[in-house]
Amino acid sequence: MDVVDSSSWRALVHFVDEWREISNLTLDHLEPWQIVFYTLSVVFFIQWARKIAKYEENLSLMWLLNDILIYLPGMQKKIEGFKEASRKEIEEKLLRFDRKKEFYRFLPDRGLTTEEIVGEAAEYKIMGDALFSRGLLSGASLSDNDENYQRMAQKIFDMYNSVNAIYPDVFPGCRKMEAEVIRMLAQLYHGGPKSCGSITISGTESILLACIAYRNRAFKLGLRKPEIVIAKNAHIGFAKAAKLLDIRVVRVPLSKNFEVNVSAMKRAISRETCMLVASMPSYVYGTMDNIDKISQLGIRYGVPVHVDACLGGFLMPFMEHCDFPVSEFDFRLSGVTSISVDLDKYAYCPTGSSAILYRDEEFFHFQCFTEPRWAGGVYVSPTLSGNRPGSMIALTWATLLFNGRLGYVEKTHRIIDAARLLREKIQDQIDDIEILGEPALSIITFTSRNLKIPIHIIGDEMNELGWNLCFVQNPLALRVCIGLKYACEEVLEEFVEDLKKCCEKVLNNTDLVYPAKTLAVYGISSSIEDFGISEEMPDILLTSLYATPVHPQRSTRTLSIEGRKMSLSQHIGFPSLLGRDAVQKLGPSPKE
Ligand SMILES: *Cc1c(COP(=O)(O)O)cnc(C)c1O
């Protein structure tokens, strides 16, 4: 043993000595200042590169190559062509259910009669209904269709639609409602007497407000460049908030279960960290982060922890009452400092209702904008808007009271039962489909195990059958979010049958070559072909969102008295783009 040890030791010494000599010879011609200068330069360069890599998530060789390719001669023209093709594809998608394709382009000279307006609004409304007749499993609508509830909501809206929540003394009832809603929510999440918060109009606003609060707190504590630490499964609202607030995002990788990798999160915490985020559950994968451990990290490093319970916030508190155990996620964990919850999701309030809650007023005050010296008076604004619609607050209040604790327990039971059933059915009946992670609540994201079954093509096939699903990229997958209306066995049975059929159909179509549809577009139920111009997609999409195209065949501008430029010609190929059911529902076209 000794002999081996000493000989290997000697070899090492020899090696070091040799290396030293070679280095001395190579650097011989350099002056000492040069050596110091070069060394420092290399160190600073490495530090700089590491920093860039930490914050620039899109930095990869592929992207760099892409950027270079774009500047090759002839590429620009080609890209323009791709852009036009993609724009056309999206526009066609958005307009495919519009039979008339006429648009109001001018304010009508005379106001229309109420009957006309209501009639037209009804016509606009059914466009999408016809398209996705089988079910909106994307979670695009989670509303409660209970007639009794709808009638009540109607009355509440009539009473409160001109109430403005920014005037608490003019509309004291509305102030009382908001205060009560916040109190009820704080109690639901086991907040103490100092818990507080506000009602907002969307999850994104709630998230943004939390980021504002923690950024302002960080500034107060003397941090110069606050960072938020979020996982790659976090909702996009955090990235939006960070961009708006000019704070840095440190993105933590996921574990193989699509949950945050807690040890990576620990490593990501720095002196500048102002907020940690846990998703309960994650919007895209429906998986739950380990909030217990994240809360402990928060306590250990003195960093506030925000729980994004936008989706699960009205399922989890009721699950234990129907024998679906969930881990504690709220203010019972002492590291958790704020919770965002969307009330227009599983609290079944009308769209445009969310809330942000804090453990302590200290955090809440950092969220609010105040100006004691404005000419208009001492100004205090807790949320982003100035004037705030009282109708939304009243409807939220009424919806919570309408359901009550037991109502939510019963509805939660139905949702979670259905989600588990669907998961089992998919796992048991379709071998080629794989569910991502461990979805615990109402979201199930699945992909294909079989290379011969491109999952987005399955999505298109399901669309064709009248199902509306979410398309996910990275990894390519489809996402289902179960709402009350579809939380029943027959619907899910039908869904799984169709999914099975689609898989078989695609598998049997061996001679068909499918386009590489790999770009998912949020909010649009399909994906589009990736020509390598995904950077351009946002611009294309923005143009399409506000498109009111003029039909090329109608060059003569006939301005009707109602302010609508008529374009009577039927869209070519329209019925083939629609599902069969949809065409029947829409009835004969006006030409016929
Ligand atoms: C819905 C949701 C949000 C908020 O999204 P909005 O588009 O603002 O409604 C945030 N996080 C999660 C997990 C969500 O499900």
UniProtKB/TrEMBL annotation:
Q: How does it sit in the membrane?
A: Single-pass membrane protein
Give one GO biological process term.
Answer: carboxylic acid metabolic process
Q: Where does the record say this protein resides?
A: Endoplasmic reticulum membrane
This protein's source sits in the domain of life called: Eukaryota
Question: Could you confirm whether the keyword Metal-binding appears in this record?
Answer: no
Signal peptide range equals: none
Provide this UniProt record's keywords sorted from A to Z.
Endoplasmic reticulum, Lipid metabolism, Lyase, Membrane, Pyridoxal phosphate, Sphingolipid metabolism, Transmembrane, Transmembrane helix
Entries under Gene3D superfamilies matching the protein: 6.10.140.2150, Aspartate Aminotransferase, domain 1, Type I PLP-dependent aspartate aminotransferase-like (Major domain)
Q: Which residues carry this modification: N6-(pyridoxal phosphate)lysine?
A: K345
Q: What top-tier enzyme class does this entry carry?
A: lyase
- Pathway(s) the chain acts in: Lipid metabolism; sphingolipid metabolism; Sphingolipid metabolism
Q: Does the keyword Hydrolase apply?
A: no
Q: What is its EC number?
A: 4.1.2.27
The cofactors named for this UniProt entry are: pyridoxal 5'-phosphate
Molecular functions (GO terms): pyridoxal phosphate binding; sphinganine-1-phosphate aldolase activity
Please provide, in alphabetical order, the Gene Ontology terms of the cellular component aspect for this entry. Answer: endoplasmic reticulum membrane
What the entry lists under PANTHER family is as follows: PTHR42735, SPHINGOSINE-1-PHOSPHATE LYASE 1 (PTHR42735:SF6)
* Protein family per UniProt: Belongs to the group II decarboxylase family. Sphingosine-1-phosphate lyase subfamily.
Q: What is the protein's name according to its record?
A: sphinganine-1-phosphate aldolase
Organism equals Acrobeloides nanus
